[in-house]
UniProtKB/TrEMBL annotation:
Region of interest (Disordered), residue spans: 85-142
InterPro entries: DNA_brk_join_enz, Integrase_recombinase_N, Integrase_SAM-like_N
Domain of life: Bacteria
Name of the featured protein: Integrase SAM-like N-terminal domain-containing protein
Length: 142
């Protein structure tokens, strides 16, 4: 299924360097860890196993995230074509990278509420606007 997807649908929608990345992830992670399972037998636990194998191999969290995204794309396509009832990746949180964690931080390093920072004008959570700085005499250089 993976190779069929890579050779057909993926090549029609992404550039060659992306296909190379997808093929590498497929060859090095997805097939060795999950290749012996039937497509219709994959579960959320199998997806978590893939994440664990990548993590235990000492690879960066970004590799786990990439593998999750590639597998999720393939399985989403399988659902759309009637080969699967549900995408098992949808029941598993994708691995988080340190940049993803930083992106969820608000001002001064506080954690934003679930769903991100919200507009305070709507009466929801969010940082208070800072008052304008006090203006005084300008310093003289020299």
């Amino acid at each position: 299924m993976m190779q069929h997807w890579l050779d057909g649908r993926a090549k029609a929608h992404v550039d060659d360097s992306t296909i190379g990345d997808y093929e590498s992830i497929n060859r090095n992670w997805i097939v060795p860890v999950l290749g012996h399972y039937r497509l219709d037998k994959l579960t959320a636990e199998h997806i978590e196993l893939l994440h664990a194998e990548i993590r235990e191999a000492g690879r960066a969290p970004s590799m786990g995230l990439k593998a999750h995204r590639v597998l999720s794309l393939v399985l989403k396509d399988a659902v759309q074509h009637g080969l699967l009832g549900i995408n098992p990746c949808s029941g598993v949180d994708a691995p988080r990278t340190s940049s993803a964690r930083r992106a969820t931080r608000g001002r001064r390093g506080r954690q934003d509420p679930p769903g991100g920072r919200r507009d305070t004008e709507q009466g929801t959570l969010g940082p208070r606007p800072r008052p304008p700085p006090e203006r005084g005499p300008r310093p003289v250089l020299g």
